[in-house]
Amino acid sequence: MTQPEQHRTTDSITDVRGLRVGHARVAGDGALSGTTVVLAPVGGAVAAVDVRGGGPGTRETDALDPRNVVQRIDAVVLTGGSAYGLESAAGVMAWLEERHRGVRVGPDPSHVVPVVPAACVFDLGRGGDFTARPGPATGRAAVEAADASGDHARVETGAVGAGTGAVVGGLRGGVGTASTVLESGITVGALVVVNAVGSAVDPATGALYGSYGSHVSYDSPGTPGRSLDAGPPSFPDPAVHQAALRRLAEAREAAAPPPLNTTLAVVATDAVLTRAQAQKVAGTAHDGIARALRPVHLMNDGDTVFTLATGARELPEGPGPLALNEILAAGADLVTRAIVRAVLAAPGGLRGPGGDFPSYSELYGGPHGANRPRSEPYSR
Known about the structure:
Layout: E1 20-25, E2 34-39, E3 46-51, E4 58-59, E5 75-79, H1 82-85, H2 88-98, E6 103-104, E7 112-113, E8 118-120, H3 136-149, E9 167-168, E10 171-172, E11 174-181, E12 187-195, H4 238-254, E13 262-271, H5 275-292, E14 304-313, H6 325-345, E15 350-352, E16 355-357, H7 360-364, E17 376-377
Parallel strand pairs: 5-8, 13-14, 15-17
Antiparallel strand pairs: 1-2, 2-5, 3-14, 4-8, 6-7, 9-10, 11-12, 12-13, 15-16
Helix pairs in contact: 2-3, 5-6
């Protein structure tokens, strides 16, 4: 899966033309949560979903079943706040209605019902205030930010939007993204919110699971850097790894938040896909989660993957359904790469009433094992 250099732009989901991403954060002391919106182009996108976790929190996902009537949607909401945070989709729905975007249900162009699928991660109390969670105003702020961002805008990653209070295996998690252009010219992108019960780190070496054999750059999206498809991952110095293990053990003793967590993803493409094909892409993309996090899909996970297909490019001619294969493979690869980027983009760890969550960079200093500043207290 090779991406020609001339096609590289932001290396994010917004490389799929027409898609925009916006983040919003819950304000106030004790708040550590937010909402992320992936906004489709006017006219919407074919969509699908695949839920694998045993404890999902979702909204409007049944509408995406290929057997049901809705053909296209205008936005996907990823949010913190557990089931409470699903209210943020109401703010997105209202924004879309004002612009007459949605499923037409009457003779007037304003007679629409926007279908806004949403999924949530558990971050309640991460900042210290259990009631500080996203609502309709947060969702509206996120969709407004997406709309204002423009085409092919760089996507902010790390502790932003739905990833503001995310953690992964005791480390700070967050938002990550990646994209590629296939040999056919089709663009595929992914965006993830990493908030997992499982770990992203190999306990034997300290290397990120997702760095093994993946197309992963340790650098920021859109910048040239060391790509792991050129060779094996670099391992942290053993002494650095042992220090990291001790630090994590201290963090777990200091606070043990309930392991109610989730990894969310949106895989997007500019290809023409049927809803059944889009659902297949969503299902295969879960393999990308399993490569980067261990374990996954537990009963206290809500792992959910959405697919969006804008329909700008036909699939290449091929032997029947096999033309879809390169998109299936790319989706899983990109989810893995986006998860690695989310973990690496997490800012310095946080210590506060909601727990003690160091970042990977704090413990390992990225791929080279040079430690960075220790955790800072919550400041909101």
